[in-house]
């Protein structure tokens, strides 16, 4: 059973950098043919896919709406992957989730495995 757990700060000020980490258990981020994504849900809105990193290398795909601000990288020794989002604004307030999708699925829309989420608030 794949389990994911997000961790990171809950409150940031505008212009700061958000850093979140996802700890994975029950699967290897390098071996189990899964794609590892970050998604978020702003208050009152639907889920927004942010980006993904593959199991087979460090290549990433980032949503065009976030391409200049978001980065995803992985720590294979810790079986973790992380999200960095620069220059946050109140519009980045959301519940952030890490998630996993099988290699033959659509990692932009389908996440059979997802963490419980961590709430991030951006406010001055």
Defining key terms:
124 residues, globular, 7-stranded mixed beta sheet, 11 strands, mainly beta
Protein architecture, described:
With 124 residues, the chain is mostly beta strands. 0% of the residues lie in helices and 48% in strands. It has no helices and 11 strands. The strands form 2 sheets. Strands 2, 4, 5, 6, 9, 10 and 11 form a 7-stranded mixed β-sheet that branches. The chain has a 4-stranded antiparallel β-sheet with strand order 1-3-8-7, with no helix packed on it. It starts with a strand and ends with a strand.
Give a quick precis of the structure:
Helix content is 0%, strand content 48%.
Count of DSSP helices?
A: 0
Q: What is the succession of H and E elements?
A: EEEEEEEEEEE
Helix content: under 10%
Averaged pLDDT = 95
Q: What is the terminal separation in angstroms?
A: 40 Å
Q: Provide the gyration radius in Å.
A: 13 Å
Query: How is the main sheet built?
Result: 7 strands, mixed
> Ranges with pLDDT <50 over ≥5 residues?
none
Structural class: mainly beta
Overall, the morphology is: globular
Proportion of beta-strand residues: over 45%
Number of extended strands: 11
